[in-house]
Design goal:
112 residues; alpha/beta; three-stranded parallel β-sheet; 4 helices; 3 strands
């Protein structure tokens, strides 16, 4: 994983942009899985499911990501899914800080 993160710095700009957009797509896919599992495990049984999504980020936020990521954040809030983030690079991620705060778990953000 760390080797992959370090390789991002040496990639051409077009490849980096494709991977940056992949964050919103990855969050959307994780929310789809959580939405599929919530009816099975959410209401039945003694314990209610509390799904969480952990995002590992190595790149900085870009304005291109703002609307798709905020849509994912609001969808996660509506579904009751907590979004956590672990930042692996030197740049902070305001988007994922907002995600952790809006989805109700401010402790779900760390920077390494």
């Amino acid at each position: 994983l760390l080797v992959s993160v370090m390789c991002l710095a040496g990639q051409p700009e077009q490849q980096q942009q494709q991977q940056e957009v992949a964050l919103a797509a990855g969050l959307s896919r994780a929310l789809c899985y959580a939405n599929r599992l919530l009816p099975r495990y959410g209401a039945s049984g003694r314990r209610k499911a509390k799904p969480r999504v952990l995002s590992l980020l190595a790149g900085a936020d870009t304005p291109l990501q703002y609307i798709p990521i905020m849509n994912c954040i609001f969808a996660a809030q509506h579904a009751g899914v907590a979004l956590d983030a672990c930042i692996l690079g030197p740049a902070d991620s305001a988007f994922m800080q907002q995600a952790a705060h809006i989805t109700g778990d401010c402790s779900g953000w760390c920077r390494i």
